[in-house]
TrEMBL record:
Homodimer. Residues 45-347 form the Aminotransferase class I/classII large domain. One of its GO terms (molecular function) is histidinol-phosphate transaminase activity. Keywords: Amino-acid biosynthesis, Aminotransferase, Histidine biosynthesis, Pyridoxal phosphate, Transferase. The lineage of its organism: Bacteria, Pseudomonadati, Pseudomonadota, Gammaproteobacteria, Lysobacterales. This is Histidinol-phosphate aminotransferase. Pfam families: Aminotran_1_2. Its EC number is 2.6.1.9. The modification N6-(pyridoxal phosphate)lysine is found at residue 211. The keyword Amino-acid biosynthesis applies.
């Protein structure tokens, strides 16, 4: 059975839109897309009067090298959110199919499914935020087409062991596409599972430049999967998903000097994460600091609501995650610069006195 048998049949046979840029054919005088012939003010040579390449070759090449995949195993879109949305639309028939998630987890899996009118099946994480593989497999029905795994998990920060991911990919072959969201993997000691897509055609990986690569505002995310899945997603992608300034920002960040600076900052985050975890754990107002492999810490407080407001009054915005199951007393604190982190501790120390 091919992984494409899991996809919606009407998507498999869909005639994709052929954009003017796809049909350009390397011409010099571009009169096929009804664009302006004049560059806009402040263009800085980007050529924003022209439509961008839907999947820019230079960016594909840089990201393929970064992630260790071939270009035909890579789709680039507007953040991981777009890839999630496209996966749901490609694999889930409205009113018939379902996705499976493990709360507490990233909210866009369920949002994208509900927009598509796909069901959302939930298998809660254990009290220590570990994934119960056997419970997950027991919850899979023929309607489940996508299983989303977030590792390191947002909002807890806990990683899923590589062996568990491989077990699920093997057990769900021919049944569901396993989508591993590795938005925070650069901050973890556990390596990516991207190499497993060669072994399991029903495994896909989400990556992003928003976190470790400092490009949240550029909205560059990737889907890594077998060529068949990538080709399917490209059938339904928007005609021009990647703005030229965003592509330019990504290429600059992925240059040798850009990567060197980013990796220095990743090391600072890891070091500061350890410092913050120890310092927060010593505060009287803190019940627990959850272990984290990401660039944030989920922290349980005696009175999370009061702490949130006290930080906000000091100009510090953290994430209120009390709406998540088993985290009703917690806030999520991103690891900032050493100076920002010190300011958080100063405010919380005052809160504790």
């Amino acid at each position: 059975m091919s992984v494409l048998d899991l996809a919606r049949p009407e998507i498999r046979t869909l005639q994709p839109y052929s954009s003017a840029r796809m049909e350009a054919g390397g011409g010099q005088i571009m009169l096929n897309a009804n664009e302006s012939a004049w560059e806009p003010t402040g263009d800085a040579g980007l050529g924003c009067n022209r439509y961008p390449d839907p999947q820019p070759d230079a960016l594909l090449q840089s990201l393929a090298a970064l992630y260790g995949v071939r270009r035909e195993q890579l789709f680039v879109g507007r953040g991981s959110d777009e890839a999630i949305d496209l996966l749901v639309r490609a694999f889930c028939r409205a009113g018939e199919d379902a996705v499976l998630i493990q709360p507490p987890t990233f909210g866009m899996y369920a949002v994208s499914a509900r927009i598509q009118n796909a069901a959302v099946i939930e298998v809660a994480l254990a009290a220590d935020f570990c994934l119960d593989v056997h419970a997950l497999l027991a919850a899979v029905t023929p309607a489940v087409k996508l299983v989303f795994l977030c590792t390191p998990n947002n909002p807890s920060g806990k990683s899923i062991p590589r062996a568990d991911i491989e077990l699920l990919a093997k057990a769900l072959a021919g049944k569901a596409l396993v989508v591993v969201d590795e938005a925070y993997v650069e901050f973890s000691d556990q390596r990516s599972v991207v190499d497993l897509i060669e072994r399991y055609e029903n495994l896909a990986v989400l990556r992003t430049l928003s976190k470790a690569w400092a490009l949240a505002g550029a909205r560059i995310g990737s889907l890594l999967a077998g060529p068949e899945v990538i080709a399917l997603i490209r059938r339904i992608m928007p005609p021009y998903p990647l703005p030229m300034p965003c592509v330019a920002a990504a290429l600059a960040e992925l240059s040798p000097s850009g990567q060197a600076m980013a990796r220095e900052n990743m090391a600072i985050v890891r070091e500061q994460r350890t410092i913050m975890r120890k310092a927060l754990a010593r505060l009287p107002c803190v019940r627990e600091v959850l272990p984290s492999d990401a660039n944030f810490l989920a922290v349980r407080f005696d009175d999370a609501g009061t702490v949130y407001l006290r930080l906000l009054q000091a100009g510090i915005v953290v994430r209120d995650i009390r709406r998540y199951p088993t985290l009703q007393d917690a806030l999520r604190i991103t690891i900032g610069t050493p100076e920002e982190n010190a300011r958080v501790l100063t405010v919380l120390n005052k809160e504790s006195t």
